[in-house]
Amino acid sequence: MFNNNLILKNPKIYIFCFSFKKDKDIEAIKKEARTYYQTYKSIDNRVDFKFISLEEELGDNVEKYEEQYDIYYWGMNFGGLLQKEKPDIIHIFADSLDGYYLFEKSYSPSSFVTLYTITGMVGLNKYDEGYLIHLRHAIDVGNLYLFVESTFVKEAFEQVGLQAHIMLPKLKNGLVKSQQTRSGDKCFTIGFASSPLSKDIWEDRGIYLLVSVAKQLSDYKFKLAWRYEGYQEMVDLCRESNVNNVEIHNGFLDMEKFYDDIDVMIAPYTSNNNNHSCPLSIVESVLYGIPVLVSEYVGLKDIITSYEIGVVSKSDSAEMVAKLKKIEENYNYYKLNADRYGKELFDINNFENNNYLKIYNELISQMPSPTLKEWQEELDANGKYLVMDRIGMAEYYNDSFIAQNYDVSRFSEFPMRTYDKLERMAVNLLIKRFSQKSFGENEILDIASGDGRILQALLGFGEITAVENSSFMIATSVKKLSGTVCYVKNDFFNFMTDKKYDIITVFRFIRHFNYNDRKILYKKLNDFLEEGGIILADFPNTSAETQLRSSLKWASFNVYDVFWHLFELINELNDNGFEILDHISVGEYLNAGKIPDQLALSRIVCFRKKQAVII
């Protein structure tokens, strides 16, 4: 877990939320953040965890501690505290990304590695393109990791080029699940525990819809957990609507007792606004083995449908009534699924699936990187400029520039000579292991072939087509190779063919592009790949790259690069239709004194199209 620089001290991981004082442990975001803090602190004593809430009434760089909740309160300007304490990882929980701007104001003059969990359904407001470019760079180099709790929110972020990862909320499974099937003698009881914090969001939260459903199901019991605000108004609404089958439990509740007689939990949201992707009451009830009914505006709807732990309905009272009756008629089936999958999906102590603790362990060895503006300013001070995006790359790597500046000895001296040899050995091993065709029978496509370095490892495996946009590089490659290669002078973004390939190799290319452009690349790779074919590509390791650049200074690097941790790599390829077959780490022990010996510079990854799962 620890690199050479951290082995003598415990890493510091600080978990942040906003305004904990106001709602304490009742409001969902604070409860979720505090649950992670308490759990991780109790199981990993190698890390100094700290739980912090930002409070508007506190002054600059003021810190107060509340022992009852084991929480520190900081003011909204906290740069001095950060520079003093220097946490290794900051993890923020909030309903939207807006708070990241506040944190970056306090980060200056240095960056911090930041995870940002967005719990709301509207997590992204309209930002100008300049700020989006800044955020994309922060994600690309490992300063910012975005986590969301629904596919809907993930897609919204990725539409503007911000890569995000889905992480379902996890809770303590302190409740004792009931494995018993429902008795037919008991009044069917529907629970609701997503009460709004103010009356102006009652419509979005589905309060009026809930009362309408209760009125139509007068022989059912409705049990509501309320949080003080608007309690009397809710009582009045039920009375004025002639609804007599609703119990309202107000204030801080023992949720185990609350859930005890509930058959179905409901989240009748009528809009994406002012709502959480994964209502904690729904998550909690599934952990308790209770089936759920949610509207189409609940981000968790795809999980509920996939695992059949409940039913999804339109935000219409007639359909909700029908769907509740469907659950009642098939109750034991839905309850069995809730019992079966609740722990797998939502138990914080289930470490088999992806979780934040695993991700902390991956991130702990990396260094923060300069912002895009800071990097550009460093280059300017050294008489250089940053080369980035498709147009910039194409202009930079033109024939005249390459002819004048190509370093023929780049891979002929240590350590890059050894790195090159290891990389080509990895390519050879992975092809021999995963290629479905015999030696010499493959159709091979090599992308951005450069001087033919990787082509050397492909000779003999089959017929090779090399796509390269530089005539100079093609000429250099021809002189180097003894085998026959078909060269195509073209930018791969513009390259088109009807041909399918058994093996595609792409090295030192994917790393140069933002996520919008990478998605285009992955689509082309998928289109060109034969069924059963494989792709081999290199992906720089975030921990190694950030430490190396911190040592050599970022002004030594003027071409835009993207870095990946393993969890990011797995998610990115999966999101774009691929699955990893294997990967080989390359570059350990090659940069003594610059980065820890055990850190690989990159991973050589072999992947294929995702295969259909037959159940």
UniProtKB/TrEMBL annotation:
Keyword set, alphabetical order: Transferase
Residues annotated as domain Methyltransferase: 444-533
Domain named Glycosyl transferase family: residues: 210-333
Gene3D superfamilies recorded: Glycogen Phosphorylase B, Vaccinia Virus protein VP39
Keyword NAD recorded: no
CDD domains: AdoMet_MTases (cd02440)
Stored InterPro entries: Glyco_trans_1 (IPR001296), Methyltransf_25 (IPR041698), SAM-dependent_MTases_sf (IPR029063)
SUPFAM superfamilies per record: S-adenosyl-L-methionine-dependent methyltransferases, UDP-Glycosyltransferase/glycogen phosphorylase
Pfam families per record: Glycos_transf_1 (PF00534), Methyltransf_25 (PF13649)
GO molecular function terms noted in the UniProt entry: transferase activity
Superkingdom to which the source organism belongs: Bacteria
Family matches, as PANTHER family: TRANS-ACONITATE 2-METHYLTRANSFERASE-RELATED (PTHR43861)
Protein name, per record: Glycosyltransferase involved in cell wall biosynthesis
